[in-house]
Structures are given as structure tokens and as C-alpha cells.
Amino acid sequence: RYSSMKDYLSELDKETKKALETFYGFSEGKSKVRRSVDEWNSTGSDFFKQIPLLKFEDFSKTATEFHSGQKRKIEGSVFHKDSSIVNSGDSNDIIGFQLCDANNSSECALYTFSSGVNAIQEWYKLHYMNIMAQIPLETKEKLSYSADDLLLTCFFDGLSCDKRHFTRFHHPLHGNCYTFNSGENGTILSTSTGGSEYGLQVVLYIDEADYNPFLVTSTGAKIIVHDQDEYPFIEDIGTEIETAAATSIGMHFTRSRKLSKPYSDCTETGADIPVENLYNKSYSLQICLHSCFQKAMVDSCGCAQYAQPLPAGAEYCNYKKNPNWMYCYYRLHEKFVKEQLGCQQICKDACSFKEWALTTSIAQWPSAVSEDWMLRVLSWDKGQKINKKLNKTDLANLMVFYKDLNERFISENPANTLVILLSNFGGQLGLWMSCSVVCVIEIVEVFFIDSLSIVMRRQWQKAKKWWNDRKRDRSGKPPEAGDPERQGHDNPVCIDEDLPTFNTALRLPLPQDNPLPRTPPPNYSTLRLETAFTEQLPDTLEVGQH
């Protein structure tokens, strides 16, 4: 609530309005006449001393300070990535601010903007975070909107709902945010069917008159659909809804899963990432990047940045305790954007994640014929909580529902596994070489297993011969060549353990003294043939005379 924060922001708002009046002739209730900087009699604001707003006069780094009206040369060689816009257009329209190292005034960074709106907002936001960092969390929650203030009507799955179904969490910049169906009470609601009638329907009270005019320039609300275990980064991926309109958001749910190593460099739970999870939610790439930057902020600047969760043992940055934190923050953020901080190299994508594809449609609400009675009834329902009649620009109608209850699952599968690889290998061999797996195994056996066995057997024979020779040398007894018992395979010449083949048997020497027993020749007399005929046939007789 801007009205409840005015006591904390009064000085900042006063100086911001003075800057607008001086530079742009902006004045509430007065004609917009551009004033000279010299006409502003300022006593010197702490806000402008800490972060001086500058107007560029020319291209030679000469600028005019808002609070003093003095022209001076801008020192320092570090410039914002958008500083090149100084070289285009009218230099009088270029506004920026300078941040210097409190310990070394020569180390400065200059940040320029193409529009005075962006410059004023960024300058205001820095001071706003510094002020909010010094206010206790309990006080900030009381200064923000409650669930009763925000919700006018609520329906889910055709049944009425109320603030008991919403869980509060405090966002550093947006204040109190509320999560529907967070599951913290142990109960998770589910819709019975798809369609807008069975989703969440709420009418939100958007008190446009109580907006901070310098911090927020749009009217409406931000929503984000997320899982109960996920942190809602509403400032990064939130969907904005309009006032005086009915916004319908249809959803399709998709669950995705990627393969981890060696197929990709994703992480399953984030346990292998050397970055502490400051959000106490399931791992995501955004959580890792924000946590990594916050850790680097604490290590480099000595304090934590206000827009992110507070690490253990650290405290948020503010002027009083950390006068150098803004310069340190911008230098560190510049390294982070340029991927020089190492966070992008450390953090990895999650292997499994959920996505909700949103389709948004908008209609005018309430209609011209129903506007009068509807605003009267809603104002009556609001009762004494507000002392005014509601306007349609103070309201936003929101419907969030599933288009259907089909869950889409996307998963990665390896294109080649070991089984598929062997199958493809065997198929290619059979196609091009007419080989089968048995043939390949036999080739491996012949070329590798048999060769290895031959080599090992030769080595064993050499080792055994060496051992026998060593035993003989120790005993001093030479081998007896004429020993009748050492014949055949016992002959010392034959050193092979295997039985001798036909060729090796022919090369064996015979004993000198004891000839080998010979097989006696056959008794050829037993081979005589007894004729079966007593008389010789006439045609076999030899004729001696003619």
C-alpha cells in the first residue's frame, strides 16, 4: 500500500518530484514550465549525494548535476552497455546517474538511459530497495494488502472458496502475494473436469489510487501458474491481467524429462551443483542462477541484495552499514550479465520439469448493462473496508482453468543402446560380408584366444626347461644318454610334454648300446598257395616245340 508507506518514502518522493520539476518542468497543480537548474535552491539531498542524477550537455562527458546545478567532467572509464546512446540524438535528452567506489572516488561507473522515465524509475528503485531493506518483515507484511483486501469473490470447481485457500508469501518488490492451492496445509485441491466453469474464478480488488506512482507505472495484477514445489518467479515470467476486463487463461499441462549424463548435462535434483539453494524449493535453473548471484554478492560486497532471499548469516544492504553496496552491485551485475561471474557455467538445467502452456483471452468486464448493479453489489459486499464506491478500473476478473485433463508427457530415449548397436553390427556384417555372430566369435577365437594359448605354452615350456636345468646344475649329475629307461618320450631330446607326432618321432636318435626290439619278419612259408587243381588244364600248358 502506497498510503501506508508514505512515512518511509516521503523524503524520497519529495526529491523525485523536485528532480522532475527541475528537469522537465513537471509540477503538480502548476503550469509545466521548464526551469533552469540554477533556479532550484536545494540544500543538498542525501539521495542525490549518494546517487547523483546527471544531464549530459555534450559528447565530451560533461554533465550537469541535479542537486547542485554544477557542470563537471565525468570521471571513470566504466560505462553501462547502453552508454553508446550518448552519441546519437540530442544530448540534452540523455539522463543517467553515476556510481563511485566509496573507498576510491576515481573508480566510477556511469549508467545512461535513452528516456528520463527509465532513469528516474531505476534511480528511485535503488533508493526504494535501500529503504525497504531496513524495515522488518513483519512490518512490511502489515503494510501490504491482506487476502481479504485483495479477494472480492472466489469460486473453484463450481464451489465457493475464500482466504483460507490462499497462502501468503512476501515478495520484496510487490509486497504480499497469495498462492492458491499451495498444499501447505496438507490438502491439494483438484478439478473434476476441464472447462472454464470448473477452474478458479476470482474478482480482485485493484486499488489503483493507492499505487506508488514512481515504482509502478502499469495497473493490474500479475499471476503465475506453477507446481507446489516450485518457487514463483513472478517478476520474471508472470502474466499480467488488466483491470476493467475479464481475463480467461486456458492451460495445457506438459511434463518433460531429459536424459542425464552421458546424453546431456542436466541435473536430477541439483545435489551435484555447488550452489546453495536459498529458496527452499525444488531445483530449477532460475533458482540456481539467483542463488549463485546472491552468494557472489555477499562474498564481494559484504551484504545481500534486497530482491532475493537472504543467505544464512548475512544481512541486506543499506547505506548506513554498506555505503559502497550500489557500486559493488552494479559492477557485479554487469559481470553476471556478461557471463563472467561463472554462474552460467556452474548451473545446469533440470532433467525433469513441468510446464503449463497458457492461452489468454480478454473481454470487457463488466458490460455496460450490468456495470451499475454489479458495482453496487460489490461495493456493498466490501462493506466498511473501503469508504468509496467501487469503479470498474479498481476490479479485475480472472478465470484460470484446464482446457482438458490430458497430461502430455515428453521424454528422451537414447537412439542407440548396446543391444541396438550389436544388432546393427550383426545386420551389417550379414548384409555385406555374409557373416553371423558365430562366425565373428570363431574369428576372435582363432586370432586371439588360440594365439594367446600358443604363446603361453611356449613360455611355460621355456620356464620348465630352465627349472630342470637349474635342478641338474645343483645336483651336479650329468644326464645319462645310455639309460635304457629313457627312451621314446622320456628321451631328454624331446622336451615337449605332449605326445610326439609322427615327424618328431622320426627325428628321435636311437640308443647306442641297446638296440630297440624289432618286429620279426613274417613267415613267408605260410603264404604258400596250395593248388586246388590236380591236373593242369590243356590251355595252360607251355608248348616247347612247334
UniProtKB/TrEMBL annotation:
Bias kind Pro residues: ranges: 512-523
Cellular localization per UniProt: Apical cell membrane
Entry membrane topology: Multi-pass membrane protein
Any one cellular-component term (Gene Ontology): apical plasma membrane
Entry keyword set: Cell membrane, Disulfide bond, Ion channel, Ion transport, Membrane, Sodium, Sodium channel, Sodium transport, Transmembrane, Transmembrane helix, Transport
Gene3D superfamilies: Acid-sensing ion channels like domains, YojJ-like
Coiled coil: none
Superkingdom, taxonomy of origin: Eukaryota
Composition-biased stretches (Basic and acidic residues): 467-477
Region Disordered, annotated ranges: 467-525
GO molecular function, one term: ligand-gated sodium channel activity
Pfam families xrefs: ASC (PF00858)
Reaction equation(s) it catalyzes: Na(+)(in) = Na(+)(out)
InterPro entries registered for this protein in UniProt: ENaC (IPR001873), ENaC_chordates (IPR004724), ENaC_CS (IPR020903)
Family: Belongs to the amiloride-sensitive sodium channel (TC 1.A.6) family. SCNN1G subfamily.
The protein, known as: Amiloride-sensitive sodium channel subunit gamma
Organism, scientific name: Phoenicopterus ruber ruber
